[in-house]
Design brief:
4 helices; 4 strands; 4-stranded antiparallel beta sheet; globular
Length: 135
């Protein structure tokens, strides 16, 4: 498959997954969403560095579009779904940070020790929960 065709395929899938994740966050109870996120992939594949990079790029690119404008939780859920579909074990992590007079929350995706989605600001957050099992 050509690189441009592969890019388009990943972008289409990322856009669809982001829309579905945003709808799920709005319409479904969080317990059901997190129960889904906690399931392991059906099969585990090794040596998938290229696919991890493609998924991260596609989610970042699609989430930046103004018509999607997905916050961190739908991005993390969409990336987790795309990675799981490819047999890559990942974790959706939820964390909080205390700033004077407010509490901020953040979601990110980890594969092993690497933060794939939402990792840039995750250092400031204390992890409360991780869904998806060990990687």
């Amino acid at each position: 498959m050509k690189a441009t065709t592969s890019r388009r395929t990943y972008l289409r899938e990322a856009a669809l997954m982001l829309v579905l994740a945003r709808l799920a966050v709005r319409l479904m109870p969080m317990s059901r969403i997190l129960k889904w996120a906690d399931r392991p992939p059906r099969r585990i594949r090794r040596f998938t560095c290229d696919e991890r990079a493609w998924v991260a790029w596609a989610i970042d690119s699609a989430a930046a579009k103004p018509w999607i404008a997905a916050p961190c939780l739908p991005q993390a859920l969409a990336a987790h779904a795309m990675l799981r579909r490819r047999g890559i074990a990942s974790r959706v992590c939820l964390g909080v940070a205390g700033v004077p007079d407010q509490i901020m929350a953040h979601a990110w995706v980890e594969v092993g020790e690497d933060r794939i989605i939402g990792g840039a600001g995750a250092e400031a957050f204390t992890r409360l929960a991780a869904f998806g099992g060990p990687c």
